Known about the structure:
Low-confidence stretches: none
Mean pLDDT: 95
Distance between the termini: 49 Å
CATH architecture of the largest domain: Alpha-Beta Complex
Strand order of the largest sheet: 4-3-2-1-5-6
Helix content: 25-40%
Largest sheet: 6 strands, mixed
Strand content: 15-25%
Number of domains: 2
Structural class: alpha+beta
Radius of gyration: 23 Å
Shape: elongated
Amino acid sequence: MNANVLLRGCDCAIITSPAALFYLSGFDQTDAVIVLTNSASYYLTNPLYEIAAKAAVGKEFVVKILSRKEIVDFLRTVIAREGSVGVEYEDMTLSRYKALFGEGELDAKDLSPLVAKMREKKSDNELSRIKTAEGIVDKAFESVLGLLKEGVTERQVKDALERKMLSLGADGMAFDTIVAFGENAAMPHAVSGARTLKKGDCVLMDFGAKYKGYCSDFTRTVCFGEPTAKFRAAYDVVLKAQRAAIDYVSSGGRNAKEADRIARKIVDDSPFKGKFNHTLGHGVGIMIHESPALSTLSTDTLADGMVFTIEPGVYLEGEFGIRIESLLAIENGKLTVIDRSDKEIYIV
C-alpha cells in the first residue's frame, strides 16, 4: 500500500474517490472512506457492505462498520487528533467538507494530484488485467462485423457488442458504448439510437471492457459498402497521423505534447485541417480517462508502466466521422501496442 506516499506533508489522509479506494484496498465498492495515519489505516463503510468488506479488504486496514453519521463523527475525531489533513479536492463535495471542517476556508492538503500520479505507472498485475480487457474488445469487434446489414440499428449493434464482451469474460463496460452510423459518427461522443444502417455509411464503434477493475479502450471505423474518395482520403490521413504518433513513441519519444503535435500536424496539413477536434489520447487504468494526457496542453512525460491511447480523428458535420484508436503500454523502455485488430480500412 502507498500510505507513506500519501502522508508526505500531512498527518492524516482521507481518501474518498472510487478509483483511489479500489487502488488502495482492492475492493470495488464506492460507499466507503479510507483513512490513513502514521499509526493506523482504516477502511470505513456502512453495514450493507460489512461481509464483503471484511472478506475483501487486506489485513493492513482496520475495517470499521459505521453508519454515515458515525463515519462523519469518526473522521472529525481523527482530524482533531492528527492535525494536518489531506483530502482529494477533486472528489470532496462541499457538503462533506462542511461536515468535516465547518464553514472556514479549506486548510487541508490537496491529495488529488498525488493520487493521480501514484496510479500512472501500472504494476505487472495491473497491466495483465488491462491486456485481458483489451483482448476481449478485439474479439468482440471481430464478432459483430457480420451483423452489419442494411436496416440494423446503432442500438442493436451496441447491444450485440456488449453481450459479446460479457460472454468473453468482461465484468462490465468501461464506459457507455458508442456505435454511430454515417453523419452521427461526426459527433465524437455520439449516443447510439434508432438510426438504421444503409449502403455507403461509415460505422464508428468506440467501446471498452472492464476486467477485474481495469479498463480497455478501442475504436475502429468501418465502411458499409464502397467508401467515397473523400472518406478514403480522410481515413488515410487519420491512419497516417496515428502511425506517426506511435512511431514517435516507439522510437523513444516521451513528450506527450509532442506526440499530439505530430499527429495533429498531419491532419492540419491535409484538406481536413481543423477537423481533429479532441486530444490525441489519455491514460487508461481503473478509470477510462486518467493520467497521462496526450494533448496540446500536456506537461506529461511518458514513462515505463504507463498505459495510454493514441486516437486521432477527423469529423465532418453532416457527412461522417473517423477515429482509429490503439491502446499502448511502455514496458522496459519499449512500446507495446496492446490491441491486435487491423487498422487498415474495413469494408463490409
